[in-house]
Amino acid sequence: MGLGAFLVYFAIILIIPIWAQRKVKSAYKKYSQVAATSGMTGAQVARKILDDNGLYDVTVEPIRGELTDHYDPRAKAVRLSEKNYYGNSVAGAAVAAHEVGHAMQDAEEYAFLRFRHALVPVANFGSNTSFIILIAGFLMGMSGLVLLGIIFMAAAVLFQVVTLPVEFNASSRAMGQMVSSGIIRNDEERETRKVLDAAALTYVAAALVAVMELVRFVLMYIGMNSDD
């Protein structure tokens, strides 16, 4: 890879995540200032959808921070950032419904979610150690060590890729539940979808960058063996 291509590559992997983060923050900021016509808080939205689906054992809890919202499968808890938990914005309702979508996946043992959970240990190990192994392999000229690093990196990349259907499915469930339960009106569907799509974009960007990094190291490995 020439210097020019190398610089373009690094510009891309830096710009894509930053752009995606700006996109989601912009959409969230805009629609967090738009009150939902239902007047329901994020906590009420989450509780209603959970109850409508018989998930009475899943709790809804506030958590500090902004956009720290998540579903904890071990505690069976939907945790919403305080602004979304107590507020009644379109953005807050969308985020709450999305996290409940994960609770629904968990209850149904959604295949991609189960697969992602199974990947967590190896993905964590791969993301933490793959670069160290790769650098050591290249410095010592050991192609076998480089290949091992690529395998560990591939596990982490697979986790990123499997995350995509999990997140898109949760957003799809969120839209369906909010519409069917009357939480949002027809004229609010477009605003809600913008929030959900912007959030999904961050996962797409992360997966794209991860795949690009993996491809780069695979090409370097091939070139290393060709030199031999």
Structural summary, described in words:
The chain is mainly alpha-helical and 228 residues long. It has one domain. Helices cover 75% and strands 6% of the residues. The protein has a three-stranded mixed sheet with strand order 1-3-2. A hairpin with a 4-residue loop joins strand 2 (70-72) and strand 3. The longest helix has 39 residues, at 189-227. The two termini are 18 Å apart. The relative contact order is 0.15.
Shape: elongated
**Quaternary structure state of the chains depicted:** single chain
The arrangement of helices and strands along the chain is HHEEEHHHHH
Structural class comes to mainly alpha
Search tags:
228 residues; mainly alpha; three-stranded mixed sheet; 6% strand; membrane; Zn_peptidase_2; Zinc metallopeptidase
Short description:
With 228 residues, the protein is mostly helical.
Set out the fold topology:
Layout: H1 3-31, H2 42-52, E1 59-63, E2 70-72, E3 77-81, H3 82-86, H4 90-108, H5 111-140, H6 143-180, H7 189-227
Parallel strand pairs: 1-3
Antiparallel strand pairs: 2-3
Helix pairs in contact: 1-7, 2-4, 4-6, 4-7, 5-6, 6-7
